[in-house]
Design a protein that fits this description.
Blueprint lengths: L3 E4 L6 E5 L9 H18 L3 E6 L19 H12 L3 E5 L10 H6 L2 E3 L3 E5 L2 E6 L9 H11 L1 H8 L3 H23 L9 H12 L3 E6 L5 E7 L2 E6 L7 E7 L3 E7 L1
Parallel strand pairs: 1-6, 2-3, 3-4, 4-5, 7-8, 8-10
Antiparallel strand pairs: 2-11, 6-7, 9-10, 11-12
Helix pairs in contact: 1-2
Length: 260
């Protein structure tokens, strides 16, 4: 995360951050309804968007075989391709459900992919952006599983499975995990249990120039002060909240958490 990418946000233009669409879940019917709502939102923000950051778990499962990608989601993929063709900057910081992208989204849609949290200098404002899974202390079992998922050898082995088997198995495990943890994800208990917030606080203490931290994964829209001059935002999700974060250049950089 030492490398800082620079974005010059034009006056009256905006950068939108959204995450956790989980397209494909919990079933095809509900997913399509949610996808249509997302496409309407994308169409609306196209009027003033300079960039759109998708902060992971856009798909409930995504794995690119050499000649096969998961079916569905054509409305959103088509809209993103249209936006990219019009010059809107589309970037995706992969989540734990859609980290297996190996070039299709980049070449076919025009999305720039990031696999780790990334520092961006937007005009003169420093922001740390990412999906947010596995940050900070604790959750060792999840971090071990993520290492297994990101291991190239394991990815090659999974690719040997026929898509009927591989995609079916992944969808089953995803539904099982959501049934186990879904209710807990949407509950705020205390700052002491907010691992993303604690990570941001510790990161800011070493990097006090970071003004904004924007993450997803948490499934709960959050805005929490790190310091007088620094704030942590979570984009929430589109399963329950239809929430997102907007950064705009209107007499200086302003940022806000919004919902439809």
């Amino acid at each position: 995360m030492k490398h800082i990418e620079t974005i010059s946000l034009l006056p009256e233009k905006k950068i939108y951050f959204a995450s956790d669409f989980h397209l494909g879940a919990p079933n095809a019917k509900e997913s399509v309804l949610r996808e249509k709502r997302i496409v309407e939102w994308l169409d609306e923000i196209s009027k003033d968007a300079q960039a759109v950051f998708l902060l992971g778990d856009i798909f409930d499962f995504w794995f690119e075989y050499k000649h096969v990608v998961p079916k569905g989601h054509v409305r959103m993929l088509g809209k993103l391709a249209e936006m990219a063709d019009r010059g809107i900057d589309i970037r995706m910081l992969v989540g734990n459900h859609d980290l297996w992208t190996f070039g299709y989204l980049e070449t076919e849609i025009g999305i720039k992919i990031y696999r780790n949290p990334q520092l961006f200098k937007i005009n003169e404002t420093l922001c740390l952006v990412g999906h947010g899974d596995g940050l900070g202390w604790g959750n060792r079992s999840y971090k071990f599983i993520k290492k297994m998922f990101t291991c190239r050898c394991n990815q090659r082995f999974f690719a040997l499975l026929h898509p009927w088997i591989g995609v079916g198995l992944a969808n089953f495990l995803s539904r099982k995990n959501r049934a186990k943890t879904g209710q807990n994800d949407a509950v705020f208990t205390s700052i002491e249990k907010e691992s993303q917030y604690i990570f941001c606080k510790e990161f800011w203490q070493k990097n006090p120039d970071v003004a904004y931290f924007v993450f997803g994964h948490r499934h709960l829209p959050l805005e929490m002060k790190i310091s007088e001059n620094s704030t942590y935002f979570n984009t929430g999700d589109w399963l329950n909240y239809d929430s997102y974060v907007v950064l705009e250049n209107e007499n200086g950089i302003k940022i806000s958490l919004q919902t439809l």
